Amino acid sequence: MAYQRLSKREVYRNRWLGIEAHAIIHPSGVEGEHVLIDAPPPSGVVVDDDGDLLFARQARFAAGIDVTEIVKGGANEGEDPLACAKRELREELGIVAREWIPLGVLYEIPSIVAHPLSLFLARDIEHVVDDQEDVERIELVRVPAADAIAAATNGQINDAVTVAALLRFAAVASSGSTGAPESPAPH
Questions:
Q1: Are 162 and 70 in contact (CB under 8 A)?
Q2: 22 within 8 A of 8, measured Cβ to Cβ
Q3: Which residues make beta-bridge pairs with 59?
Q4: Residue 65: exposed, middle, or buried by beta-carbon count in 10 A (0-12, 13-18, 19+)?
């Protein structure tokens, strides 16, 4: 049995996301309320610059720390995942790439966030002028790929999406494959 949605109400909305409260019936048959974060479908990018990986380092409010992470962000209305990834990479780090390899999809927090994140590997890059949003202060961080994977395994890189993305990158890099098939996440 799946969840049954009885009603919903919007609790909050800003330019990036909304928070909805849903009256539901749990799969067990018990009534309850569940919160859902309504955000545009996100994309994330692992950037490979001839063996070095390029990351974004920025302050994250909830964690209260600067976080080193892959480039990621939500799609604009009507924007497909690859177009979103390309736009976010240019905006956040001032990079355009000529080679794009899909690394599949993953859910960030499947209990409260509906859309999966589409992952891509960007290669053959060129630096251009960035176009960060007025609220962003993002620093480009360059790390040798092997060091980045080690940092993800020992906790120095601790953003969950970035750790998962590096796992996917390592699988592609070690196998020489062309990436994960671009397909919807299993339900």
A1: yes
A2: yes
A3: 66
A4: exposed
Distances 60 to 2, 66, 120 between C-alpha atoms, Å:
34, 6, 22
What are the tens digits of pLDDT across the range 74-87? 999 999 999 999 99
Reported pTM: 0.87
Instruction: Find residue 171's DSSP bridge partners.
Output: none
Indicate if 25 and 95 belong to the same structural domain: no
Domain assignment of residue 116, yes or no: yes
- What is the per-residue pLDDT across 22-60, written as a single tens digit (0 to 9) for each? 999 999 999 999 999 999 999 999 999 999 999 999 988
Q: Which two tokens stand for residue 101?
A: 């390899």
State how many domains the chain has.
Answer: 2
The first and second tokens of residue 22, run together, are: 């849903």
